[in-house]
Amino acid sequence: MRKPLKETDLLLNDAETIMKYEDFVGYVMSFYGKRPGSVYPEFNFTLSEVRKALLFILNSSLYPSFSGDSFDREHVRNIILNDRLIEDPNERWLR
Rounded to two decimals, what is the model's pTM? Predict the structure, then answer.
């Protein structure tokens, strides 16, 4: 079982890297966030959930490379849905 990550677990000191990751977070939210125009608003992902899942990917040897593409977006989605089931096995994945 993996240790829960906090948004502060990854210290970034490069502005370009921070922008790359924040752009990716926005990209994920445009699909799964509850905001006007998102593709799947029923998932209702939060910024915190997306950032924590991204931190897991960046700190994990299971994901050897990060490019911010749809493959990474789907990994983030799966991590968040899995975490929601761990928190409450009776909860539906949609909020």
Answer: 0.76
